[in-house]
Each structure stands twice: as structure tokens, then as C-alpha cells.
Write a structure and sequence with these properties.
alpha+beta; 13 helices; 36 strands; 29% strand; disordered N terminus; binds (2R,3S,4R,5S)-2-(hydroxymethyl)piperidine-3,4,5-triol
Amino acid sequence: MKKHTIISLFFAAAFAISAQAQTVIGTKNTTLVLDTKTGGDLGIAYYGAALDDVQSVFDAGFRSHRAYAPFGQHSAVDYTIAVTHPDGNKTLVLPIVDVKEEAWEGGKIVTVTTKDPVYPVVVKNFFKSYEQQDLIETWAEIGNDGKKPLTLGRYFSGSLPFRGGDVWISTLYGTWANEGRVNTEPLTRGYKVIKNTDGTRNSHTAHAEAMISLDGKPAENSGRVIGVALEWGGDYELRFKSNDDDYNMFYAGICDENSEYILEKGERFTTPALAYTYSAQGLSGVSRNFHNWGRKYRLAHGDKERKVLLNSWEGVYFDINEPGMDQMMGDIASMGGELFVMDDGWFGDKYPRLTDNSSLGDWIVDRNKLPHGIGWLVEHATQHGIKFGIWIEPEMTNNPSELYEAHPDWVLGTPNRPNDYGRGGTQLVLDMCNPAVQDFVVDVVDKIMTENPQIDYIKWDANMPVQSRHSKYLKHQGHLEVEYWRGFAKACDRIRAKYPDITIQCCASGGGRANWGVLPWFDEFWVSDNTDALQRVYMQWGTSYFFPAIAMASHISATPNHTVFRTTALKYRIDVAMSGRLGMEIQPKNMTEEEKTLCRNAIAQYKEIRPVVQFGDIYRLVSPYDNKGIASMMYVSEEKDKAVFYWWKLENMYDSHFPRVCMAGLDPCKQYRVKELNRVDLQPLKFEGKVFDGLFLMQNGLEIPYSNEVEYHKKNDWSSRVLYLEEVK
Ligand code: DGJ
């Protein structure tokens, strides 16, 4: 805090001395130096650890790079913006005409206005600092001050130069049921492009976030790392380019392929923000910055604990009925759960939703399945002492559905070609560009909530990409991608304005919507349809690079697992699920009393550690991707008085040898008592109840037994531990 004050005073002074040349943006531990000389190009001269003396950057000979390079006049370099003027000219030049700084409660906003001296194009670049979270957002506003429309061929959010060397990048890739996988590679010469063109979901196959490690192969808790995240739910492109001059460039923005945008006279186009953060504490340091920023500024209700829930999907799939729902509600209540979510299959009148090939759009209760309606379920949930939640997929419809019969023009697709169907062979995407569709989507939520104001939670699903890239509503088809998301945002804004308090999960065939673009309206996302605990270790690991545990829905499910058919021990499934937002996705009536007791105890213990898991600082320790046979991580409370440590065995071979895991993030001078959670072993661990100082735990760690020592007939090849550390004063 003190250091920060000194730095801020210095920046004020530095700005006064060289206001014409530089603008300095400081956060607690980082500095961004912009070249902002009037008449010159907007440049980034430095981004990294906080500087005491900005002049050093120039004295040391660091080179500045354009922050928002236009295409055409200097087209030997890559660019963030490209326009075609009404006369067909494609060149753009953007000298700075004005620089403005203003304070906001969390930092400051710098606005750099640039203007083409020949053509009436004005671009404002914004830089917003979040001082305490060490994060900076940048975005652009592109304006057409001319009398005729012009065409935007590229409209990225921004770029960031970083020094070459032994630079590595870590990005997330995957597919349905395998989201959030980490790919780590050295950055080599040329281009590396990460992009997504799904249309409705954007994080199954690749993610709009990345880590750039500047000190060689990335480490979790050491080394300089820049983290980047594009705050956008739609198609995107991240580009890494190695320059010829020892510097690399990173560019990010909406994917502009086949998405030229006609900017009407007087119109302003605002890009999504690109967020970046820097840490010298390795990948986990960057994750902590994203998590802190996200919880405070970007995630719906990032400061509120999430409830432990049971979701009906893997338990009963479409087999929804009153006694079944009531039984599940009773069961989760008896295990200490706080919420029940009725998933897909509850709706449809003329076309009841019996499987995935009909009824989306017909958000009326199926009276054959639920004769007394939703109200009866809500009442019963209340009687069980829990809350009630419901599944919807409001952006979609099926043919057949009553909605489609009434509004065939509301779906995306060309009028002169057959529909291109998705899930179930009948699914279609509604045209969110159309305001009538936006009204409909708002009404779906409004109707459910008006009829049942006690509903606490909505699971908002999206199970189909945009397959047919045509809107019957839009004049310019190149706008589809942007207008879909503007329509989605408008609908979400209206829903949140009326229902600010409900919890809403974004789900998209699993983890298709894990991005900072949508999270302001959503409290959490479903990490994956794959609930297999072993594969979840890998997926949740990657996802945690950018997203906090409070947002990562992680459920205990049945075995054999419904996706990979692996049989894992219940304790293992619990121990993995407990590292995220704990829930269950199982038919409790198929569980034994012993299994229910294990879950009941786990839920009680999760409630105890919930503040640490959901609000604590993440320290990943041993990566599952490093093939050491185990994975381990921990959360530490802000005050460093509590911590939760996880250890999961990933392979089981006789005569295996695993590393002893050194902890991280503790206070070296504090004393911590160790307590095992979810214990199944016949004997307590050797260190159960013992007190260790933080330094010892961080330098040495604890000797974790490789197996769970249970009765002979219960032995299995899974092993995991969760330890709770509490400060002893
Ligand atoms: C996909 C989701 O990821 C699942 O959890 C479930 O809600 C199904 N859709 C329902 O159709």
C-alpha cells in the first residue's frame, strides 16, 4: 500500500514533466508506459514489473511498439484495425490528437484519441487500470465522422508487445467433454493463431485467454508471466507474432473472418476489452490476479458464497416427474445440500420434451410429467429446506416446436436453403440480432420468475453453434457475429436489471461458455459434461488458469462415469469436486447409506472450507501435465490464516515414487494445525492434528501416503487427500 502511494506520486510527477511524450499507468506491482506524443503513433514502451523510474526504460534502450496499428500506410507490420474508405482506399493513419486521464474508484482510465488527417476516421483507445488487482483493460472505439458508410475489415481490441527470448505460451484447447486442456509450448518464429468460430459458444475447442511466460518453461510459482484474456463471448482471434527485432507482438479481438462491419456515418463501434495482467510469481500469480479482479469486478455476485446443489441431469436425464424430483430434493436436503436444479426435460405441451429432438422454445411445463406445475416443485423444495433452480436454453428452438411453427423467421439460416440442424437433428439457433427474439428470450426468464418468484437459480444452456451464417433480420450479413452478441448482451442486461439476485449458470454443452465476456451476467459456468474425476483434474487445472473456483461448477457423479465409463472411488470424486464449486450430479436413490454418509460429511466439511475455496488465493503446486503421477494445489485465505491443500494420485503402479509436495502461499512465520477432510482411512494420518510452521510446509511439505488405507474389501486404485490448515495463535 505504502509502496503504491509512492509510485502514484511519482507517476503524477513523471506525467507533469513529460506529459507530451508518455503516459504512465501504474498498478500495485506493474507499470505500463504508453508513448502518447501528440502527432505520433500510440505506442507501448514498457509493460512489466512496477518501475521506480520510468526514464530507465528509455535510458536502457527499450523499444516502443505500436499499440493499435492501422493497416495500409505501414503495412509491413501486422495491424489491429483495417478500414475501406468510401472511395475504396484502404490506408489508415492514426496520429494522436488528444490524451485524457481520469480517475475511477479502482484506478484510472486513459483515453488516447487518434484521428486520420485525411479521412474522417477517429479512434479512441482506452486503458483502464485496476490498481489493486494488477490488471489493465484496453479497448477501442472506432468512429466514422464522414458522410458515407465505411467498411471495417478488422476491429481488434488491442495489442501488446513483449520482449523475445525464451518465451513460452500456455493456451487452453479441447473439445466437448475435454475442455480447458493446457497446451504449453515455446513461442517460435512466425505466427501462432488461436481462434474460435463457433458463433454461440467460444471455449470448447480453444479459449480466449493465454499465458505468456517470459523466463523459459513456465513454472507455477516463479517466473515472469503476462496473462491475457479477451472479454468476449463470441468468435475471437488471438495472434502471437515473432517480430524481426527481438520483440513479439500479441494481438486480440473479435474474429473478423467474413465479418466485415459497415460503420454508418456518425456511428461508433466499441470493441470488447482485452484484459492483461503481469506477475513475477509464475502462472499461479497471474491466475490470482485474474481471480481477484474477476470476483470483484467481472463475475456476477463474485463476493457471495455459492450453494451446494444437486442437478438432475446425470441422475435422471429427461425422465422428469413429480415423485422423482421430490425424492431427489429430499435426498440432497438430507445430505446437507442447499439447492436442487431440475435440468432439461420439464417442458413442452404440444411437443413434450422426451428427448433432445423437440420442444426448445416451448417453455411451458409438461403437465404429463409435472401435473402441478413448477410452483408445486418450488413449494416442495421449500418444505425440504432447500432452494429450487431450473434449466432453460432460451436462445434455441427445435423443429418441431410451437415456437418454430409460429416464428420460422426467427431462426438463423437462409430463407432459400433447407435448415441446417444441430443437436437431435432438429435444433436451430434463434436470431438474437432480432429485437423480437431478444424480447422473447427476456420473456422466457421473466415468465418463469414472475410465476415462481422463489426460484433461486437458472441454468442457461446453449447446445448448438451457429451453423447457418445468415440472419433474416440483418441487412449486412457481415454483422451477424457482432449483432448476435449485442442482442445477447441486451437481453442479459434486461434480465439482470429485473432479476439482479438470482444465480445464473452459463452452460454450453458443458464448458462452451467459460469466458470473461459473459460472466458479468452469470455467477458460474459448467466446466464440462465430463464429470469423470480423473479427467476433471486436468480440465479444472487448465480452467483455473483464468477462472476462480467460485465460478467452476464441479459435481460428484456416479460410476461408471457416464462419459468415459471409468470407475473411480467416491472419495476421489468428492476430493476433486471439492476443489471447485461443489455440487452433485447423481441419482441419490442409487447410492448406499455409506456413500450418502460420505457425501453428507463432505458437504458439511465443504461448508467449513467454502470461504477459503471460493474466495482464497490459488497456488497450483504439481501439475497433472508434468507426468509426476500426482497433481496437487491449494487455496489460501487472504489473511493466510487458513488453507486447503489437495493431493490427487493420477496413476497407480506398484513401486511408484512421487515427489513430496512443497506448499506455497502460507505465512512462513505462522503456525498451522493440519486436519484431514473426508477421511476414509482406518487410521488418522501421521500428521493429523499436528502443528507446523508455514516455512516448514513450504520448504518441505508433508509425507502423503500413496494409498488410502481402508478395509481390505474396500481397497481400490484411487487415492486422494484434502487437508485443512488453520492457524494456531
Ligand atoms: C448440456 C449440458 O451441458 C448438460 O449439463 C445438460 O444440461 C444437457 N445439455 C441438457 O440437455
